[in-house]
């Protein structure tokens, strides 16, 4: 009778250890040590950490950067940023790490690549299309009206 609770506790503990051990093993692999760490001052770490947090989007919150978000994942990512800065990683290393982990969507300003080229070129194409439409469709109508006004002023008639 007393063996059933003991077996249950043993199973639960083994499941808990099985869950926690791989996570701690992966935690060491997440951030790779670097050969030449950068020595930052405390003020530089604070400023760089805040700047990087402003550049990265919170994966949980809609339209918020890591600095503004109150989501738990944002707090974890900010802690990761400051940890990496304390270890001597550069801003580029940290952003690359976050992009590898969460994808390009974590950036507020995605880099120009084949996947994001439409995102970068669409506003330029829309402005060009607007200028061309004004030139080819609206301008001829305005020129015709101006010609009609000149002719009516010469003839003395109203159009």
Report the mean per-residue pLDDT as an integer.
77
Detail the poorly predicted runs: 22-29
Secondary structure: number of strands: 0
Distance between the termini: 107 Å
Give the SSE order as H and E letters: HHHHH
Q: Report the C-alpha radius of gyration, rounded.
A: 30 Å
Helix content: 55-70%
Strand content: under 5%
- Per CATH, the architecture of the largest domain is Orthogonal Bundle
Question: What class would the helix/strand composition place it in?
Answer: mainly alpha
Shape: elongated
CATH class of the largest domain: Mainly Alpha
| The CATH homologous superfamily of the largest domain | Cytochrome C biogenesis protein
- Major sheet summary line: none
SS element count, helices: 5
CATH topology of the largest domain: Helicase, Ruva Protein, domain 3
Integer tally of domains? 3
Molecular structure report:
It is a single chain. Helices cover 68% and strands 0% of the residues. It is mainly alpha-helical and 159 residues long. The chain folds into three domains: 1-30; 33-111, Cytochrome C biogenesis protein (Helicase, Ruva Protein, domain 3), CATH 1.10.8; 114-159. It is elongated and about 105 Å long. The N and C termini lie far apart (107 Å). Residues 49-152 form the CcmH/CycL/Ccl2/NrfF N-terminal domain. Possible subunit of a heme lyase. It holds the Pfam family CcmH. Keywords: Cytochrome c-type biogenesis, Heme, Iron, Membrane, Metal-binding, Signal, Transmembrane, Transmembrane helix.
């Amino acid at each position: 009778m007393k063996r059933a609770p003991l077996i249950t506790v043993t199973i639960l503990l083994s499941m808990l250890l099985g869950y926690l051990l791989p996570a701690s093993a992966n935690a060491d692999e997440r951030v790779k040590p670097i050969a030449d760490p950068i020595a930052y001052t405390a003020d530089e770490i604070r400023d760089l950490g805040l700047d990087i947090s402003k550049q990265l989007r919170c994966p949980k919150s809609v339209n918020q950067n890591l600095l503004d978000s109150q989501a738990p994942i944002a707090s974890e990512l900010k802690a990761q940023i400051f940890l990496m800065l304390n270890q001597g990683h550069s801003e580029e290393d940290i952003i690359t790490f976050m992009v590898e982990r969460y994808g390009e969507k974590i950036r507020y300003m995605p880099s120009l690549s084949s996947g994001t080229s439409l995102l970068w070129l669409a506003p330029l194409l829309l402005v060009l299309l607007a200028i061309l439409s004004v030139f080819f469709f609206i301008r001829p109508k305005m020129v015709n009206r101006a010609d009609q006004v000149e002719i009516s002023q010469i003839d003395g008639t109203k159009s």
